[in-house]
Amino acid sequence: MHYPVAWGLSKLDKRLNLPGLIVGSFIPDIEVPILIIFFNGVLPDHLIMHSLIGALTIGTIISTLITVMVYPILTSLFFSLDKVKIKEVCRLTPALVLSCMLGNVFHILLDIPMHPFNFVLWPLVDPYSIVGILVLVFAVDGNISLGFLIARILNFVFMSLFMFAIIIKSRKNLWEQILIGK
Ligand SMILES: [Zn+2]
Q1: Domains in the chain: boundaries
Q2: 40: left (phi over 0), alpha (psi -120 to 50) or beta
Q3: Is the pTM of the predicted complex or chain greater than 0.85?
């Protein structure tokens, strides 16, 4: 659901690196299954990876490593893309690191309106004092769970439409265009 934002950023500034933006835009959510499986009921399902401080440090480092070392292998394996070309695009450069960082930051910014709590300014601001605007708008009779559900559905519908438009626009050389961007 975060891919369209990564794609949009790569179109806004051609110097940005699409693979870095893509990987960066999903990395914050790697903490979600870990927290749910191992810390269910003890810790919330969003934590440091959804904070700006986490995005600018650990999130950017993990994203950069994955983009440079893993992304070329997986995309050439599963989508039959030219490995030499992807490796060239995924070379370690300042633009790639910046793209990974922006991917992480925009993931967190997109999450804010639709989550009932947000670690964005952790540890400076209490995450539970930052309630997503869409959650509040749709919290009928103060039902935050309902607001959260509707906000997520709306985000899903909106991002699916955006994704559909990207696929239509990129239908020639689909995988190359949506995974490498060149
Ligand atoms: Zn997230």
Answers
A1: 3-179
A2: beta
A3: yes
Distance 149 CA to ligand 1 centre (A): 15
Ligand 1 centroid–CA 141 distance in Å is: 26
**50: CA distance to ligand 1 center in Å?**
6
Compute how many other C-beta atoms are within 10 angstroms of the C-beta atom of residue 75: 22
pLDDT digits (tens, 9 = 90+) for 76-116: 999 989 999 999 999 999 999 999 999 999 999 999 999 99
Size (the chain), residues: 182
**Three-state SS annotation for 41-98:** CCECCCCHHHCHHHHHHHHHHHHHHHHHHCHHHHHHHHHCCCHHHHHHHCCCCHHHHH
28 CA distance to ligand 1 middle (Å): 6
Are the C-beta atoms of residues 44 and 117 closer than 8 Å to each other? yes
